[in-house]
Amino acid sequence: MTAQPAAPSLDFSFLADGPPVAVLGLGKSGMATVDALKASKVDVAAWDDSEATRETAAARGVPLVDLNQADLGEMQFLVQAPGIPLHFPEPHPVTKRAREAGCPIVGDIELLYRAEPEARYIGITGTNGKSTTTSLIGHILTEAGLPIAVGGNLGTPVLTFPSLGPDGGYVLEMSSYQLDLLDETVFDAAVLLNITPDHLDRHGGMDGYIAAKERIFAGQAGPQAAIIGIDTDPTRDMAERLAAKGHPCLIPISVGVETAGGVSVVGGWLIDDLDSASSREIDLRTIQRLPGAHNWQNAAAAWAVARVCGVEKPVIAAALKSFPGLAHRQQLVRTIGKVIFVDDSKATNVDAAEKALSSYDRIYWIAGGRAKEGGLTGLEPFMSRVIHTFLVGEAANDFAAWLKGKSPTTITGTIDKAVEAANAMAQADGKGGVVLLSPACASFDQFPNFEVRGRFFVAAVEKLPEAGLSHEEGA
Q1: CATH number for the segment(s) 13-106
Q2: Does the domain at residues 109-322 carry the CATH identifier 3.40.1190.10?
Q3: What dihedral angle (degrees, nearest 10) is formed by the CA atoms of 336, 339, 344, 345?
Q4: 361, pLDDT greater than 60
Q5: How far, in Å, CA of 239 to CA of 241, rounded?
Q6: Beta-ladder partners of 337
Q7: CA 338/CA 201 separation, integer angstroms
Q8: What does the pLDDT read at residue 453?
Q9: Where along the chain do the CATH 3.90.190.20 domains lie?
Q10: DSSP-derived secondary structure for 247-308
Q11: CA-CA distance, 280 to 270, in Å (whole number)?
Q12: For the segment 239-281, what is each residue's pLDDT rounded down to a tens digit?
């Protein structure tokens, strides 16, 4: 078989004849920005507040210029990392200097758009669910044979993408910080899943946060689609505003209420009314890797995007069924007999754990770590689903006190011991169930991050014998 040629790299030579481009912040996306610009012979003036980061960058040949002192009026623009304050609580000193000098401030996604203006752009935002939805859309479009790249806030820096040209598309998870750094970018399909209070210090309050999210729809015209969840008050109000302004392609999505002209999930069934001919398409309750109402919203949004992109319904349905799930977000790890093991290590707070607990019956719950303020308060309604709780980490004793009278509890201390104990209890019970790691805690007491914690859980599950075998028999 003849190997296909690699897609060409992004071309920024249109910037090469101008003044330097300033880059502030040399983390993963900042370094990708520097590398991409240098590869196109663009002059770069880069800076980071961390001396250690600057030393690492200098060793890689990054041209360092102290942007606290440089004449920013002589720069083409400033490419700022999204984690650096743009407005609130107060702008970074370099950001402030750039504004005073009339130097435009953008992010790396804006550079991608300027390099590849003819490609298709799909943006996904929301307080919750955007990573899963982005990955799910990427999976569906890949299964449909479309040339795409997936990244943004999801983790892959966008300026490491190949050039896809007019036949390709970029599927981008967009944080509110990244949306604030857009200028000319317009999304062909823009998804807003939901809005609940978050990052309010970075946006000056709830109104600023909502305004940042609404930027995902900026500049849309013609067939460019605004796909918006209407199950939270701020997004419902936003949908009404867009409709009042005459948005040309507004697609509502909902879980629980059938929406005219949109995509909804009622009683677990995904309903497509995009052609004003309401039809039940797929029972999402049969898809183990998309459990719960929050994942049904993700599936509805992904369905709408795929339909806008021209993917046939049977292809979308098949791709939903084959979606492997996103690591550490209610990820199905293994099934042993009647017992399912689920890694939801990303659930570092009560709100996230609530979504997991609401998704299953007969739960053997592994919880604990470094507790957030409020502990487990708010999870009372879900305790009837929990057969037994296994507690780990710093919060174990406090959580055991809270759980008294709500759930039988065992303090195991560590996740591997919790996995063994939960499996033994679930297998002996014989009625089936879910061994669920959904800690409702940060990981920092025992692990550097939730990813490492999730991988530790998966490794412990993989060591378990098959149903009916002892460790010795299964060796």
Answers
A1: 3.40.50.720
A2: yes
A3: -60
A4: yes
A5: 5
A6: none
A7: 46
A8: 98
A9: 331-462
A10: -SSEEEEEESS--TTSEEEETTEEEE-TTS--EEEEEGGG-TTS-HHHHHHHHHHHHHHHHH
A11: 6
A12: 999 999 999 999 999 999 999 999 999 999 999 999 989 999 9
331-462: which CATH number, 3.40.50.300, 3.90.190.20, 3.10.20.30, 1.25.40.850? 3.90.190.20
Which residue intervals of the chain bear CATH 3.40.50.720? Answer: 13-106
Q: The tokens of 258 are what? A: 């059938």
- The SS3 assignment for 113 reads helix
What are residue 121's DSSP bridge partners? 170
The H-assigned helical ranges of 28-175 are 28-39, 51-59, 93-101, 108-115, 130-143
Q: How far apart are CA 306 and CA 28, in angstroms?
A: 30
Tokens representing 474 are 């299964």
Q: In terms of residues, how long is the chain?
A: 475
- Buried (b) or exposed (e) across 422-438, using 16+ Cβ within 10 A? bbebbbeeeeebbbbbb
The CATH 3.40.1190.10 portion of the chain extends over: 109-322
Q: Token digits for 119?
A: 């490609």
Distance from C-alpha of 236 to C-alpha of 214, rounded to nearest angstrom:
12
Label residues 328-340 b or e (16+ Cβ within 10 Å = b): bbbbbbeebeebb
- Cis geometry, peptide bond prior to residue 89 (ω within 30 degrees of 0): yes
The helix-helix angle for 350-357 and 292-308 (nearest 10°) equals 90
Distance CA 293, CA 341 (A): 19
Residue 468 clears pLDDT 70, i.e. is over it: no
Q: Which amino acid is present at 154?
A: L
